[in-house]
Amino acid sequence: MPAHRVLLLPGLGNSGPNHWQTHWERAMPDLVRICQDEWIQPDASDWVERLDAALRSSGEPVVLAAHSLGCALVARWALTCSGPVAAALLVAPVDVDAPSRPPGPRGFAPLPLMRLPFRSILVASDNDQYLTVPRGRQLAGAWGSDYVLLGSRGHIGDAADLGMWDEGLALLAPLRLGID
């Protein structure tokens, strides 16, 4: 069975040149970044609409590789839409309900707390300024996600300087192949 195609869902501000999503996109042309019109003050309904359109045009099951606000996008999309999603890798979700959330996004709160209709893995760090460990565990439980705590990696984005982030690729591989 061929591997599922991957849609990259960046968070607030898009993923910069040192972000693992950007490294993956450069190295693997079959990974497709979903580009949004507004990266600094996004509206959830616009982001959901863009993701839904990409999924409807896909025609085949895909794996979502989301970071930060992209994880909130996945939860918000699953609340109102359905489509060909085989699985999701949810890396460092931003807790849009917490006072520590970054300013700008509109309509992402409250964060949906229902079981996602596809397999998912939530990856967290124990020193993420936008997600506490207890809240990460709560989200993983509510979404039905496997929970992976990496240790001290901050927000697991540009500043973490992960390069190709081999640990993330190892978590993504079974999702792409449909292996439990």
Furnish the topology, listing elements before pairings.
Blueprint: E1 5-9, H1 20-27, E2 31-33, H2 44-58, E3 62-67, H3 69-80, E4 85-91, E5 119-124, H4 133-143, E6 146-149, H5 166-177
Parallel strand pairs: 1-2, 1-3, 3-4, 4-5, 5-6
* Distance between the amino and carboxyl termini: 14 Å
Biggest sheet: strands side by side, in what order? 2-1-3-4-5-6
**Low-pLDDT stretches:** none
Return the string of H and E elements.
Answer: EHEHEHEEHEH
Kindly provide the radius of gyration, computed on alpha-carbon positions and rounded to a whole number of angstroms. 15 Å
In percent, how much strand structure appears in the residues?
Answer: 15-25%
Q: Report mean pLDDT, rounded to a whole number.
A: 95
Number of strands: 6
Largest sheet geometry: 6 strands, parallel
Shape: globular
Q: Note the total helix count.
A: 5
The structural class is alpha/beta
What this model shows, in words?
- This protein has 180 residues and is an alpha/beta fold.
- The chain has 5 helices and 6 strands.
- It has helices at residues 20-27, 44-58, 69-80, 133-143, 166-177; strands spanning 5-9, 31-33, 62-67, 85-91, 119-124, 146-149.
- The chain has a 6-stranded parallel β-sheet with strand order 2-1-3-4-5-6, sandwiched between helices.
- Strand 1, helix 1 (20-27) and strand 2 form a beta-alpha-beta unit.
- The two termini are 14 Å apart.
